[in-house]
From TrEMBL, chain A:
PANTHER family for the chain: MODULATOR OF FTSH PROTEASE HFLK, STOMATIN-LIKE PROTEIN 2, MITOCHONDRIAL
Species this protein is from: Sphingomonas xanthus
Coiled coil segments of this chain: none
Gene: hflK
Self-association and partners: HflC and HflK may interact to form a multimeric complex.
Protein name: Protein HflK
Any Gene Ontology CC annotation: membrane
Automatic annotation (TrEMBL), chain B:
Organism the protein comes from: Sphingomonas xanthus
Location (main, coarse): membrane
Single biological process term from Gene Ontology: proteolysis
Name of the featured protein: Protein HflC
Main function: HflC and HflK could regulate a protease.
Subcellular location as annotated: Membrane
Gene Ontology, cellular component aspect: membrane
Record family assignment: Belongs to the band 7/mec-2 family. HflC subfamily.
InterPro entries, per the entry: Band_7, Band_7/SPFH_dom_sf, HflC
Key words, A-Z: Hydrolase, Membrane, Protease, Transmembrane, Transmembrane helix
Amino acid sequence: MTIFSGWAARGRAFFSDNKGPWGAPPGSGGDEPPPGNEPSGPWGGTPRKGPRPQVNSLDEFLKRSRGRIGGGGGGFNFGGVPDRSLYAWAIIGIATLWLLFTTMHRIAPEERGVVTRFGRYSHTLSPGIGLTLPSPIDRVQKVNVEEIRPIDLGSAAEETLMLTGDQNIIDIAYQVRWNIRDPEQYLFELATPEDTIRQVAESSMRMIVGQVSLQDAIGNKRGDIEARVAEEMQQTLDSYRAGVVIQGVAIKQADPPAAVNDAFKDVTAAQQDAQSYINDANAYAQQLSQKAQGEATAFDKVYEQYRLAPEVTKRRMYYETMERVLQGVDKTIVEMPGVTPYLPLNELRKSAPREGAAQ
Amino acid sequence: MIAIVRNHPVAAAVIGFVLLLVSFTTVSIVPETQQGVVARFGKPVRIINRYKEGDRFGGPGAGLAVRIPFAENIVWIDKRVRDIDMERQQVLSTDQLRLEVDAFARYRVVDPLRMYIAATSVDRVELALRPILGSQLRNELGKRPFASLLSPEREGAMENIKAGLGRVARQYGVEIVDVRIKKADLPDGTPLQSAYARMMTARRQEARSIRAEGAKRAQIIRAEADAEAAQTYAAAFGKDPQFYDFYRAMQSYQTTFLGDGQTKPAETNIILSPTNEYLKEFTGR
């Protein structure tokens, strides 16, 4: 509470400041009451007659009139004799303010001010302070030419379906960035420039997508499509004399529709599968080739030695192999001809289930 | 002058008001974006700021215009390029496929007088042209197979539609700047579903053919490897088939009875006769 009352007091102090809007009036030695503090009626209490005090500056005039009107309460005193010079000064004051506000225009660095004189295009103001004729004559429309404006078409939430050249359907979302190149054309040529840009974007994108295949649209030709759409849009808008520049088109999303997405994923999976088949085959080929070369080389080496002493080498190899083979096996030698050999069938039977279990 | 005003303030105010009124009704501001048909008691007499091709802004058309107060009035007509947004149309192609088309036309009033006489306002021109644009579109696109509907710009269809619409538009003093298709979609329901089905089957076909292609290439790679191995073997072993037979038999015995180092062979019992080659020295001869 106290804070608020404190602020309020400060505010009152601010507004009851002795100064007029352009500082303290020169030579107002106190004979004029401060405007905010004057509690009297609209005409300062005493209606003046005869020679009026000379009002020699706008400040003083403003201050006085503020005192009179700001005093509140009565409004206009219709009963009294109107002070004609007050009217004159009021008109001059308003006219001055009017002139001030309608002849000077602050144009920001990114803006251009298009001046129309009685509706006819006159010239364009560059950034800075621009001077024009006052309001009913000259009118200034400020146009921001630097700002890059985005238009979003299609969204992730909703499917924007387009037909591609190979009669497939694609779900696409993109953004068009544009800015104004020619403020006069932008203001005077098209009735609804932003709608026009949006429609041209839709139509150009549809046209370009209608010329490419689905695979190109969802694949690596996106940059190409973006460039072609931007070019097409620029051409069309130039033919309308729209006065805008397409800065770029960005495809944010280009996917098959959700309904067929699984089928598209299966194609990707199939590519992976195919590659893995080939990888397996290559592995087999490598293995086989190495094995063949190894065996062939081994044979060659042995054969070289064999050629030097065929008989001996052959016998040696035979015995060595037999040694190794017979070493590890059960051997039965039947010496007597005509004797029925006893086969240890029990033992064979015993060993049979053991193997079955082992396998 | 001042004295008169001072002496007859009411009269002066009335006169001033009347003067102001007269000047407001006499002089009109003509903006760059509008053209005006001046009608005297309803009869069009002249046109101000008429559109001419290639006009630069700031030309003599716009600015102040004078008219006879109370007798003449000005009907303002937009000079800018405006658009007619058509309602969606269903187009039936020659191969009996349906497509929903959304198009727009851009136009400009080039003969405001004719437009004023024929339709009075641009809204009514749009109202009149919209169905014509629709029917032009249906007629022109209906002559084509579905595939060419997807990019009618290339086929010159849009030019034909523009020309057809332009003929009608000229009666209204309107020039068609451009006709374009904004959207071309398959209608919801069966056509869309069947398109999806077609896309899915196409993908399925693609997936299968990719897999088959992969399998084929794998088989070829294996066969080539087999052939190459056979060649390698033949080159080496063909030098002495008899020795190879012996050499390979030795290897085979070893593998069969001892295993290849990874798997253990089944247990073996060998019954040898003393006449066996290996045991030939047993007899001690």
